[in-house]
Amino acid sequence: MITQSQWILRWIIPTCVSALIGAMLLGTLFWAAASTDEVAADRQRDLVTLIVSNIQSSVAHDQESATVWDDAVTKTKERDLDWLDVNLGQWMNTYFGHDAAVVLSADGQPIYEFVAKSPRAPSSESLGLAYRPLASRLRERLAAGDQNGVSGRVLSIGESDLTYVGRRPAVVSVKPITSDTGEIEQPAGEENLHVAVRFLDGDFPSTIGSEYQFAEMQFTRTMLGDKRHSQIALASRAGMVIGYFNWHPFEPGTSVLYATLPVVALAVIAIFLAASLAGHAIWRRSVKLNSNRQELQHLALRDTLTGLANRAHFRSELTARLRRALPEDECSVLFIDLDRFKAVNDTYGHPTGDKLISLVATRMREILPDALIGRIGGDEFTVLLEGRKADEVAAIADKIVIYLREPFEIEGVYVSIGASVGVAIAADANADAVELTRQADIALYHAKAAGRNTYAVFGDHMDALLRTRRQLEHDLREALQSGTQIEVAYQPVYFADNSEPCSVEALARWNHSALGPIGPDVFIPLAEEIGLIGKIGSVVLEDACSLISTLPSLNIAVNASATELASPGYPLRVLSTLAKWGVQPARLEIEITESLAISGEQETERNIHTLRAAGVRFAIDDFGTGYSSFSRVQNVTVDRLKIDRSFIGKILDGQNSAIVEAIINMARAQGLKTTAEGVETNEQRDKLKLLGCDNVQGFLMSRPIRREEIIALLSVGKAKSGRA
After folding, report:
1. CA 707, CA 492: separation in Å to the nearest integer?
2. Largest CA distance in the chain
3. DSSP letters for 425-461
4. Can you tell me the distance from the alpha carbon of 544 to that of 540, in angstroms, rounded to the nearest whole number?
5. What distance in Å separates the CA atoms of residue 401 and residue 419, rounded to the nearest whole number?
6. What are phi and psi of 250, to 5 degrees?
């Protein structure tokens, strides 16, 4: 019995299985081959139909190269047969392959006739029978002023059809001979006509067959009964069939079938041999399948770049753990958003951005090896902390901010970012996962609003603050609409080697009707987020230009955000405002960020190029705080570098002094001016003067002041100069 079972398992079942599979394979292959051949035949028929249609339109298009021409109108009227032979007969044959051409007068009489030499060349009478109906129909359309079908590609109306010329099938097209400039006027319907003929038999089918790989392509008057051939009917506009193109169809399915049969035979043999080992193979496959299932399950729960929990897994795990938590258990959720990550991504590219994200994930694991960490967005992370007191959670959030502030080394380049952290601590064991994440998100928003690179713990007051923020959005829109609260302050910029102001920087200020002055660090980011920064920029530019239009010795600087500079209409708005107030473009300097200057954004670079070509100057604001090396800045098209106040505040230290000196020397080598920001002591000013800095700006000389004070300041300066 065992021997019989073994014989059945090793021989009978494999034979039946292999025979069944072989029959299924052959049946499938035969069906697939037939279906593939039918699809290929349909495509070939569609292609031939398209070719015939294209030939009919291309003949008419070819005619327009010579019929829409002032010379053609003139030479036809003059009956210059030599010119007609060269340009409307021989050239059409040589260049486009037209087989015959006729030029007709306004009364329909042939002026000129060309027929390519051929044993089967048609007679003039045959040509006339073919083209007269089309010419008559075209005359009627011309007389009626019909322009139907004329477009940017089709320059004149025409008539064409498939018909017989003698005993030969052909495309016959009739076009009027008209002026290309419109300077030669002809009475409607009395234009001379040009007839073009292209035969569809003879060498034409073989040429098409060779070009498009149609086997045995030929023209026949009648339909072939041979099923081995594919064919399409050639019909005139009236629906009369004038003949057929037929060819031996391409049969890829059959070719593949015959090529596959030996492989199928070998496959059946292989299946037979493999079936005897099916039990062992199935077992091994089951083991592998189980392993793959576990791997897929892991991938479904993890972020592929960092290996951290993804959004779905973090949410489900947070819900489950909160549900299992005991009354004494404490749970907290941290939302972490990387600061300045977009600038790094734009400056160094996405591969560097991906490496930075991976390094951030590594540091997070080092800080919190036992916590559940998730990546829920491009530069957003979440953390679930369990069993930690509120002060411990705050300390962890602060530690995350400090650790992520440290530079990251990526392929020899040190990149500095930062992080804002929002913290939500569950009030009791009945905490809801959705509510906890909402609170953490609100806390994150407040951390960003506090200047970023810090953390905030959610409190009940934050909901009120969020409502306040929304109210500020509404008030800012109202302020811009009314035009009464947004003001412009001006901070003078001085020569480093004397006390004379050389320019001013225009700064937006918001004097809220109820809350009083609101700092630019609050409303400028708010305006960028809600899309109002462009309107604020327009207000500042308008006021600045109106000021310097009355002060011809003064230049002005304004700030431009990335959103403004990427706007297609920004150059026009700037130049229009300058023209309105009669201000020379060279008196305006636009300050942009370092990352924006080297972003590589095409629209931004195009706008900078347009404005600089008009004479507007550009400066990099807060230089030294971005991510560009000196070698990258060498390629930036700006006119000035404004050294960030963080370097000036410690310029008396040796290291910062060396950095500032390097920036000044690099700028001078590139032909750029330099301005030091945040100068607050005479010692700092003297040091900058010694290092060769061109201009200085800061509270030592003047805080931002009102328009009237600027005018008064300059008046005092002029008076002193006059007394001197």
Report:
1. 11
2. 129
3. E-SSTT--HHHHHHHHHHHHHHHHHTTSSSEEE--HH
4. 6
5. 5
6. -70, 130
The whole-angstrom distance between residue 523's C-alpha and the CA centroid of its chain comes to 30
User: How many other β-carbons are positioned within 10 Å of the β-carbon of residue 50?
Assistant: 10
Residue 619 bridge partners (DSSP): 591, 640
Nearest to 500 by CA among 721, 243, 246: 721
**Residue 61 contacts by C-beta under 8 Å, 6 or more apart in sequence?**
153, 154
Q: Which amino acid is at 667?
A: A
Residue 273 or 595, more confident: 273
| 119-152: b (≥16 Cβ within 10 Å) or e | eebbeeebbbebbeebbeebbebbeeeeeeeeee
Q: Torsion angle, CA of 432/436/437/441, rounded to 10 degrees?
A: 150
Residue 475 structure tokens: 């008030």
Half-sphere exposure of 96 (CA within 13 A, CB side): 26
Among residues 671, 680, 692, which one has the least CA distance to residue 645? 680
Residue 239 has pLDDT above 70, yes or no: yes
In this prediction, residue 269 carries a pLDDT of 80
Per-residue CA distances from 372 to 308, 326, 328, 385 (Å): 8, 18, 20, 7
Residue labelled with tokens 């811009």: 480
Nearest alpha carbon to residue 382 among 441, 435, 426: 441
Which residue type, as a one-letter code, is found at position 299? L
Strand partners, 199: 170
Instruction: Decide if pLDDT at 214 tops 90.
Output: no
Whole-number pLDDT of residue 225: 75
Phi and psi at residue 494, in whole multiples of 5°?
-115, 155
Distance (Å, whole) CA 129 – CA 116: 18
Q: How far apart are CA 560 and CA 451, in angstroms?
A: 20
pLDDT of residue 2: 45
pLDDT tens track for 274-305? 766 665 555 456 557 666 777 777 677 888 88
Q: How far apart are CA 707 and CA 705, in angstroms?
A: 7
Both ends of the chain: CA-CA distance in Å?
Answer: 127
d(CA 315, CA 325): 15
Q: Is 694 in contact with 672 (CB distance < 8 Å)?
A: no
* Of the candidates 100, 106, 101, 102, the residue with the CA atom closest to the CA atom of residue 77: 106
Q: Please report the beta strands in 476-521, taking only residues with DSSP state E, as ranges in sequence order.
A: 486-495, 501-512, 516-518
Q: Looking at residue 10, what is its pLDDT? A: 62
φ, ψ at 464 (rounded to 5°): -65, -40
Determine the pLDDT at residue 28: 81
Q: Output the CA torsion 504→505→506→510 (10° steps).
A: -120
Q: In terms of Cα–Cα distance, which of 284, 106, 135, 264 is closest to 197?
A: 135
Nearest to 342 by CA among 452, 466, 446: 452
CA–CA gap between residue 515 and residue 482 (Å, rounded): 17
Token pair of 663, please? 């920036």
Assess contact for 135 and 174: CB atoms under 8 A.
Answer: yes
Q: What is the pLDDT of residues 543-552, one digit of tens each?
A: 999 999 998 8
pLDDT at 635: 60
CA distance 474 to 110: 80
Radius of gyration over every alpha carbon of the chain, rounded to an integer in angstroms: 41
Q: How far is CA 597 from the centre of its chain?
A: 20
Angle at CA of residue 299, ends 295 and 304, nearest 5°: 130
Q: Which two tokens stand for residue 153?
A: 């590609």
Do residues 511 and 517 make contact, with C-beta atoms less than 8 angstroms apart? yes
- Going by C-beta distance under 8 Å and a sequence separation of 6 or more, which residues neighbour residue 657? 651, 687, 691
Distance of CA 362 to the CA centre of its chain: 32
Do strands 241-248 and 215-220 pair parallel, antiparallel, or not at all (unpaired)?
A: antiparallel
Distance CA 624, CA 594 (A): 8
- φ/ψ of residue 379, rounded to 5: -130, 30
